[in-house]
Amino acid sequence: MKYLYIQTFGCQMNIHDSEQMAELLRGEGYRKTDDIEKADMVIVNTCSIREKAEQKAHSQIGRFRNLKKARPHVLIGVGGCLAQQWKEKLLDKAPFIDIIFGTHNIHKLPELVRDVEKTRAFRVETSFHNETRSLGVLTLPDNGCVKAYVTVMQGCDNYCAFCVVPYLRGREESRKAVEILNEIEALADHGIKEVTLLGQNVNSYGKTLGNGYGFSNMLKDIGRIRGIERMRFTTSQPRDLSVDIIKCFGEVDALCEHIHLPVQSGSDRILEKMNRHYSSRDYFEKIVRLKEICPRISITSDVIVGFPGETERDFNETLDLMESVRFDNLFSFKYSDRPGTKAALMGDKVAEEVKRDRLMKLQAVQETYTFEKNKAMEGSVVKVLVEGRSKNSSEDVMGRTSSNRIVNFRGNSDLVGKTVRARITEAYLHSLRGELIEGQV
Ligand code: SF4
Q1: pTM for this one?
Q2: What is the pLDDT along the chain (441 residues), one digit of tens a residue?
Q3: What is the DSSP string of 57-98?
Q4: Whose CA is nearest to atom 6 of ligand 1?
Q5: CA 9 to ligand 1 center in whole angstroms
Q6: C-alpha of residue 155 to centroid of ligand 1, in Å
Q7: CB distance 201 to ligand 1 below 6 Å
Q8: Are strands 153-154 and 173-174 parallel, antiparallel or unpaired?
Q9: Residue 428 Cβ < 6 Å to ligand 1
Q10: What are residue 300's phi and psi, to 5 degrees?
């Protein structure tokens, strides 16, 4: 038996890519391990969406130098966005790497590994393919997990000024609907209750198929699959959130009451510089529409502070938008230059300490909104899909509400995979405490 250790950086797409790598390498006799000491192969699945993520990945790769020295038979592979960006140049810094594979070459891993095992010569594979072969590997989550990811499309054609995705993940390409639906049926047959549909710009799904089948059709079709109780999707570009998709929140029972809709800025001037193709008013109108159709919908978002040229006034407009929308949660970041993007070439960069102060201010404001929203749930009864044992106590289980809030409550492992009712007894910033209500959901 050979063992595979994978370290993943970045988003849900990368997590799912790593699951697919592990599944493909099962066929080569590798089993996943969390113990690096046991590993015969190590893969670092990297992210370079932000400078910090890229630095972390570089330093992790550097740490494997000693591992390779101590145990030369261990294969070292580097995949993901950093591999796509740096290609063989990664070898200048880390000549001990055996395999560098880009974002479109996950399906080639078995072949690459077989080759390197035989020849012991390094391989680099970073070409783009106009197909989605790397996306369709059926991955069943470990031990009794009830949720699974399904990638429905890859790449992005939007070219937002700050983003490296179109350069590192390629042009937008959707998988065929029949493949996706078959995959989800297979997951349901294995007891999966919740699927999250993944794509860099998931709500533009279908554009490249050219047959009129769009994301709203996909949501409705998945909603008819027996056994799938919940579905979510991420991540969406507000411009591509069509009326048909919004309507699905009122029509498709399995679609969760949650949307992650990155706004990035509340200033129209900055949104234009970012090449986002919507105004803060357009964004707000979509939020109003979503709330009309699904009054309990939870809205989360991403914001970048300190984009080149962002003034105090622009920043205050972002705070104003936050006040109008009252996001349930917000992921906020300081702008960092990403090589090859339009924004990296822009002048008028915002000073580091200004970015830091704005980020702290924005996060403090958001914390009050998030806590306020959670607090308002005290005393309410919610449906919770139980995902597993709680990290906090061996006597507790944890699950999520449809709005994607974590709930911990007293209960045993028999509840895992079941949807139960719980009364919320206490709210915290990042989770809720509840008590099980026995009986039918
Ligand atoms: S839509 Fe998202 S993935 Fe596409 S370029 Fe913009 S930020 Fe990047």
Answers
A1: 0.92
A2: 899 999 998 888 899 999 999 999 999 999 999 999 999 999 999 988 888 888 888 898 988 999 999 999 999 999 999 999 999 999 998 999 999 999 999 999 999 999 999 998 999 999 987 666 656 777 776 666 899 999 999 999 999 999 999 999 999 999 999 999 999 999 999 999 999 999 999 999 999 999 999 999 999 999 999 999 999 999 999 999 999 999 999 999 999 999 999 999 999 999 999 999 999 999 999 999 999 999 999 999 999 999 999 999 999 999 999 999 999 999 999 999 999 999 999 999 999 999 999 999 999 999 999 999 999 999 999 999 999 999 889 999 999 999 999 999 999 999 999 999 999 999 999 999 999 998 767
A3: HHHHHHHHHHHHHH-TTSEEEEEEHHHHHHGGGHHHH-TT--
A4: 160
A5: 18
A6: 9
A7: yes
A8: antiparallel
A9: no
A10: -120, 160
Q: Residue 401 contacts by C-beta under 8 Å, 6 or more apart in sequence?
A: 382, 383, 384, 407, 432
Any atom of ligand 1 within 6 Å of the Cβ of 165: yes
| Three-class DSSP category at 230 | strand
Give the integer Cα–Cα distance in Å for 202 and 177.
Answer: 13
Establish whether residue 160 lines the binding site of ligand 1, counting it when its CB lies within 6 angstroms of any ligand atom: yes
CA of 304 to the centre of ligand 1 (A): 13
In the structure encoding, which two tokens stand for residue 181, read together? 């639906």
Half-sphere exposure of 148 toward its Cβ, with a 13 Å CA cutoff? 29
